[in-house]
């Protein structure tokens, strides 16, 4: 009888350990679940991305040559980087189904990217208060992202998207 209890406890312990191992191996902490069908609409090959970004840089240079005051063209970034946590916090807002990216300009002149969450009806989630809100998913006020790391200056050195 005692050996049956020991055997039962051992089997139970093994089952618990095995189930914990499966949980960790299936879902690494750095993976965020997503709908592959929804994402597929926006996914393009890197070669296409290279063509798009190099065409933009070429047009930017051509416009700079034609304009007398090139300060405005130079103020456009090639890209901006936002960290993972900021993107997740933006998308964690109640009702968020996507992100819209606006171009904005502050008083010092550089053009900046402003990211705002959008709902299922394609409306910006902005709220009404006009003040910076803490990132919580249950707030009634929207939050937006800005102050990304501009490229140029903080560019990926070896990226095919930034080199000709």
Compact overview of the structure:
With 164 residues, this protein is an alpha+beta fold.
Structural class: alpha+beta
Fraction in helix? 25-40%
Helices and strands, in order, run as HHHHEHEEEE
The percentage of residues in β strands lies in 5-15%
Unreliable stretches: 22-27, 129-139
Shape: elongated
Summary tags:
164 residues; alpha+beta; three-stranded antiparallel β-sheet; two-stranded antiparallel ribbon; 5 helices; 5 strands; elongated
Plain-language structure description:
- The protein has 164 residues and is of the alpha+beta class.
- The protein has a domain at 75-153.
- 38% of the residues lie in helices and 15% in strands.
- The protein contains 5 helices and 5 strands, in the order H-H-H-H-E-H-E-E-E-E.
- It has helices spanning 2-26, 36-40, 46-66, 71-74, 84-91; strands spanning 79-81, 98-105, 111-118, 144-145, 149-151.
- Strands 2-3-4 form a 3-stranded antiparallel β-sheet, covered by helices on one side. Strands 1-5 form a two-stranded antiparallel ribbon.
- It is elongated.
- The chain starts with a helix and ends in a 13-residue tail after the last strand.
- Mean pLDDT is 68; it is low at 22-27 and 129-139.
How are the SSEs placed, and which strands pair?
Layout: H1 2-26, H2 36-40, H3 46-66, H4 71-74, E1 79-81, H5 84-91, E2 98-105, E3 111-118, E4 144-145, E5 149-151
Antiparallel strand pairs: 1-5, 2-3, 3-4
